[in-house]
Design a protein that fits this description.
By secondary structure, the chain is α/β, with parallel strands linked by helices. It has five helices and eight strands, in the order ββββααβαβαββα.
């Protein structure tokens, strides 16, 4: 038989011929990646490192599992799609990790969406944006984030998972 999802709860009832089992359907962490991050591993490896976007997905999924959490990992070059995903997260996620890439320095729309989501948010950047060009040293995203992790390469994504897991657990207690 197919799983039955009770729309009034966060539980899924799995039914077969002999077994009735309740499984918690935890809300995932949305890990959202902005423009050009699909080119990781080949684009300016001296700045962004050699890890690919798939490497970052694997890292975040593995780290989230150590905290008993799941990840919904996405990338888009389109600002409006990122806004849509943040609005979706408001309903279905327990928090957001965002590397808005170039939109970090320009997007009031992403800031507004993050503030409206009312979720814990960690902003992450592979490079240290404060050691880069002056226009990269301003982040609109930071105004909607609980904190910022930058300059640690791919490890920053794992750190972001750890921090967000702590925030989520402290809010649940």
């Amino acid at each position: 038989m197919w799983p039955h999802i009770d729309s009034g709860s966060d539980r899924c009832v799995l039914v077969d011929q002999t077994v009735l089992q309740l499984v918690d359907m935890a809300k995932p962490i949305f890990v959202l990646n902005g423009p050009n991050l699909n080119l990781l591993g080949t684009r300016e490896p001296d700045v962004y490192g050699t890890a690919t976007l798939d490497d970052l997905r694997n890292l975040t999924e593995a780290r989230a599992q150590t905290h008993g959490l799941a990840v919904d990992f996405r990338q888009s070059n389109v600002e409006g799609e990122l806004v849509d995903w943040i609005q979706e997260a408001r309903e279905v996620a327990c928090g957001v990790i965002i590397n808005a890439a170039g939109y970090t320095h320009t997007s009031v729309a992403l800031l507004d969406a993050l503030q409206a989501a009312e979720l814990p948010v960690v902003e992450v950047h592979l490079s240290n944006i404060f050691r880069r060009e002056s226009f990269r040293q301003h982040s609109y995203i930071s105004l909607g984030a609980d904190g910022v992790i930058c300059g640690f390469g791919a490890k920053g994504y794992g750190l972001a998972i750890d921090v967000l897991a702590d925030i989520i657990k402290s809010r649940d207690t």
